[in-house]
Amino acid sequence: MNEPVELRYDFIHKDFLYLHRTTTYNMGTFYHRHEAYELYLFLRGNVNFYIENSCYRLQPGDLIVISPEEMHRSFSLDDTEYERITINLQKSYLHRLSTPATLLSACFHYRPMGKGNIVHLTQAQLEQFLQLTGELEQALSSDAYGTDIQANCCIAQLLVLANTVFQQASFIPADIMPALVRQTMDYIEGHLAEDITLEQLAGLFHLNSTYISRQFKKHTGLTLRSYILDRRIALAKSLLGEGLSITEACYQSGFSDYANFIRSFTRVTGISPGRYAKKNASPPE
C-alpha cells in the first residue's frame, strides 16, 4: 500500500505570486519545494525556519532566499501573530527581468545549496523593502492603466535590493538544527543509491529507532520514508535533466523497482519521468 504523499512540489502558475500574511494558528508545514524561486521576509512571530539540513530562529527583518531545489519549512512555535511576506518567482520571469549586466537570480545561486540563505536587513533596508512591497500591493490591487508594468518595476527593484544586500552581507545566523537530524539527513544524502533502513540508522547512531523516527518527524514534518523518497526523486530529476535514460535515473537514484519509480515520480511531481525528461531536455548545441 502506498504511503500518503506528505511532501509537496508546489507549482506557481503565474509569473510571480505575492502574499503578505498574518496568522495566529500554528504553522506546522512539512518540508516542501516550490517550482519557483522565493523571497521571504520575516516581520514578526516566534518561528523556526528550516532549509535543507539547517534550522534558524527567525528575527524580524530576516530576509531569506530559496531556490527551487531547496527543501524548506516554517514552524510557528506558539500562537503569537506570525507575519511574513513571500514572493514566488518563475525562473522564466526572472530571466526576462534580468539583463546581461544584472542577473537577478544571482542571490539564489551564488552559495552552496542550503547555506547562506539568510541576511538580516538594517532598519533602512527594511523600510526600503516595505515601501516597495507596499507599492507592489497597490499595483496588484488596481486594474488601472500601467499597473502591470508598475508591478514588474517593483519586483525588479526588490530583486536588485535583495541581490545587493546578499552581496554585501557578512551575517551568519545561528544554526539550531539538532545534530541527530542533520546527521541523519547527511547519511541519507550520501547513500541514496543504497538500501536505507531505520534499523541501519539506529545501529549507526546507537539510538533507539523509534526515537530517531520521532525526532526526524518533529523537525521536518516528514517520515523518514517520505524524506528518502523526496531526495531520490530530486536526484532522479537531476539525472534526467543531465540526459540519462529513465531506466538509468531509476536505479542510480536508489529505486529497485522500475514500476514503483514511475508511479512514485508521477505521484509526487505531477508529471511522468518521460514527460519530465522531454520538458527539461537540453537543446542541441
TrEMBL record:
Q: Which InterPro entries match?
A: AraC-bd (IPR003313), Homeodomain-like_sf (IPR009057), HTH-like (IPR037923), HTH_AraC (IPR018060), HTH_AraC-typ_CS (IPR018062), RmlC-like_jellyroll (IPR014710)
- TM spans, by residue? none
- PROSITE patterns membership: HTH_ARAC_FAMILY_1, HTH_ARAC_FAMILY_2
Gene3D superfamilies from the xrefs? Homeodomain-like (1.10.10.60), Jelly Rolls (2.60.120.10)
This protein's record includes keyword Cell inner membrane: no
A Pfam family assignment:
AraC_binding
Every copy of the HTH araC/xylS-type domain together lies at: 182-279
Q: Which domain of life is it from?
A: Bacteria
The molecular function GO annotations come to:
DNA-binding transcription factor activity; sequence-specific DNA binding
What are the UniProt keywords, alphabetically? DNA-binding, Transcription, Transcription regulation
Protein name according to UniProt: AraC-type DNA-binding protein
Q: Which species is the source of this protein?
A: Paenibacillus typhae
